[in-house]
TrEMBL record:
Domain U-box: start-end pairs: 4-79
Organism expressing this protein natively: Gossypium lobatum
Protein name: RING-type E3 ubiquitin transferase
Enzyme class: transferase
Keywords from the UniProt entry: Repeat, Transferase, Ubl conjugation pathway
Pathways per UniProt: Protein modification; protein ubiquitination
Amino acid sequence: MGTQLPDDFRCPISLEIMSDPVILPSGHTFDRVSIQRWLDSGHRTCPITKLPLPEHPCLIPNHALRSLISNYTLVSPSKLQPCPQPQILISSLTSQSSHVGTKLNSLTHLVRLTKHDSGFRRKLTELGAAPGVLKCVGSDDPSLQEKALSLLLNLSLDDDNKVGLVAEGAINRVIKVLRFGSPDCRAIAATIITSLAVVEVNKATIGAYPDAIQALVWLLISGKGREKKEAATALYAICSFADNRRRAIDCGAVPILISLLDSGLERAIEVLGLLVKCKEGREEMMKVNGCVKVLVSVLRNGSSRGVQYGLFTLNCLCTCCERLCFEAINEGVVEICMGLMEEENEKIRRYTSSLVQTLRENHAFG
């Protein structure tokens, strides 16, 4: 198994064996695909040291490490062999004669084997594992369902599998779990939505399912801490597709997200930062009493990422509503902005400057 290779061969982000290792200016090595996604998401810090990076950091190929990984693979083929006879494990998931215990045992093995090995994940899908896994996802047995969801999540981590899993009917199964599964199963189901939505075409497909976004919004209302966080993360993933923003708004997401943000779920501000980009989202936010107060609170107490989204959201609202400008002033936003002007984070400084300019243009302060 690939899991037996030296840990230094693994990317610190994906935890998978690196195929194209590159060195950041911080001196740490990552797989090129993983670190590029990190940078494309707007991060400008090293994932390990958290130290700031240049705006356009150079990725230097680590030829020595790449050669080591290649040579190790050639001389140690036995370490890369997958679980013997995976077809037997897959067959037990669909066989009418398999007992729940047998299926649970097979799923446990497959979850372990697919956790860090992308090659084995691809092999399973090529062997036709998806229908059997999805059948177990629909099981009435909570233990079997949870283990099947864990395996489905692992399979979805491979980009080559994401579209195929959706085509196999994964979304319908996952939506039912979001509504009727146990708390742990609902949280995993929401995480699967997030994983599948990494592929752009899947965002539109997921949103087009009548109950998908509605189920996530329902989970924001009825779920516990982990469920709410995973549901908000899933909404953030699929609402980067513009049509899904309107669907989330139509499902009543805005007041729920503002309430959750006020209760301490900072992930909600990231979703609001997407919904505020459309007219319907801004209109819904303006209707919520205390919306500005909650956003200003994020500027005072939020993380760096939360502050970024808080500034952006507040600026979008103040740009189209003079009343909200005066509300923001009364909540002390000018004083907060003066302090944020000195932030090291370039995005925070830029968003702060834009908000201050908006307030001035609306004559909220001189």
